Amino acid sequence: MKPRTRLALAVAAGLVLAACSREPSTAPGPDGGPSQAQLEKETADQFIARVNEEFAQLMPEYTASQWIASTYSNGDSELVASKGNERFLARTQQWVEQSRRFEGKEMSPATERAIALLKLGTPMPPPRDPAKLSELTALASKMEGTYGRGEYCTGEGEARSCRQLGQLEDVLRNDRDYDAQLEAWQGWHTISQPMREDYVRFAALVNEGARDLGFADAGELWRAGYDMTPAELATETDRLWNQVEPLYEQLHCYTRTRLEAEYPGKGSVNGMLPAHLMGNMWQQDWSNLWTLLAPYPNASQLDVTGALERQYQAGLNERLTRENALLPTDGRVEVARAAQLEHAKAMTRQAEGFYTSLGMPALPESYWEKTQFIKPRDRDVVCHASAWQMNADASDVRTKMCIKPNEEDFTTIYHELGHVYYYLAYGQQPPLFQNGAHDGFHEAIGDTIVLSMTPEYLQSIGLAEGAAPGREALINAQMRMALSKVAFLPFGLMIDRWRWGVFDGSITPDNYNQAWWDLKARYQGVAPVTPRGEEFFDPGAKYHVPGNTPYTRYFLSHVLQFQFYKALCDAAGHQGPLNACSFAGNKAAGEKFWAMLSKGNSQPWQQTLKELTGGETMDASAVLEYFAPLQEWLVEQNEGKTCGWQAPVASAAPAVDRDAVEGDAAGDATAG
Ligand code: X8Z
Ligand code: ZN
């Protein structure tokens, strides 16, 4: 996640009075800004130079307030974060309002782009009314805090025990017992019930803010940040989904067959996958079902989690021996804690090593001092992984995670460092261009590296025994990647289908949950096994909803990362099948990657994509090329099966893309 920082912009009422007065005042403007007279002399280029400067000045205080709320979550830090956000939004409102003077005037192309970005940057456009702005930022901090502190408690008195997200996820990750998984899944989905009313109000307030900026609603504003019209972007997502949908359906069909064998009579619901059995709270990544889904259990396997656990245990034992094996219990807890921190840092060093092997710089020393690597014991934090640029010259960059020694967290570190290296590379751009070419680019950087984590690479860092030759090993390796990358695709799409619908009014509070599960059914072919009525607010149990992070970025990233990977493999001179490529250690690939990162958001993404890949459109053919062997294998496995599922007729579909999705077979397809 990127902090909301520079994305927070809207129109202000504050300056309207001053702008209308005949006699320009020479007094300094609000917050020590320019006087009215100074404003009137300013050219567009000078205006943007000033905004960049003011932005850089404001940024550290804003980001610090957000960092504190995320790493020390309580009512006080929530207040500080919400006020920090409000202050930043109020200033950016002024900038947007001031920029209106230049509409239709001559200016440099860079200034024109920067002015357009001012209006487009925010996923949380605040309403003009200062009281509503204050209410909005308070709600945003409250919802994120509620998520971060969420816990599911059972029992009374002495027997009372509570579990937070990490512990409930551990159940889904490791325990294949049907009822234990159901309880963990249902338990987590209680934390969002109190958010429902807040979300209703939140949606109304961001919509008001979006309309103040000239958009139909907040969803249209979210879709406007892609150097194309909002309608075109919606159509693009449908086109890309249509490209990959047959591959997803094959994976779905194979997985369902295996689940039905594992849980006789209850491994599917009307042809759909039971939400609590997918090894993941949101069914977005099925990697934890490896033992059920491994194509060839006897062929070479990759047990990265096992290797990481062994590394951690070895470190712990070494420490215990060194410190004193006879330590009292408290002492042993402290030693274990130190071992966890050391191992989490070692995992991060490993990831950094990939980036430096490409010729990119080492992470700054302050990164290691200020990052949150593991979950603190003495306070609540938002564990959802994120990467932070704290200041405009990117000299202070951090990640915030609750790292455990498992494969999922290991690859998430590579993902987060992708954001961090983007910050470092575009740190020389003016602040308004310090952003991804679009947000899907930002999400794709680290994942492009993850695609390069081949069995050979894992062997080179001591986490696997190496690549075994042969088709069976190849299919195993492909399945491992597909369980995270292909399983994700429909999930990446459905979250914002839901929010676009909420914002455009086609999904109303009285059918929030119904619409959520209709979309889960339609796109993912996933269903709950017990009724999920409107007393629940299941969207709020996924971080990005209370965190207000747009999600289409991840869908786009899961397409783009294959395009980036292919281009970097070409740059590295790779020959042979795409899925066998690792560009680890290749300086030519590194240079090309860094050149792209350095551009930030200073030009349309189509141009940036062209410079890297030669093409100007997002295209899923690299996904299909990569997974061709697996797709062929899946079709063989599914032969004779009736694949697909019958999704219930949707109670509501987002009005905005109703045309665009016409003919989209997702959900009611029969394939194979
Ligand atoms: O939120 C994230 C990252 C931070 S930007 C950990 N991701 C999405 C998610 O967890 O839902 C990465 C993949 C999708
Ligand atoms: Zn990310």
TrEMBL record:
InterPro entries registered for this protein in UniProt: Peptidase_M2 (IPR001548)
Pfam families assigned: Peptidase_M2 (PF01401)
Signal peptide range: 1-18
PROSITE patterns, per database record: PEPTIDASE_M2, PROKAR_LIPOPROTEIN
Membrane keyword on record: no
Keywords for the protein's UniProt record, in alphabetical order: Disulfide bond, Glycoprotein, Signal
Designated name of the protein: M2 family metallopeptidase
Organism encoding this protein: Luteimonas colneyensis
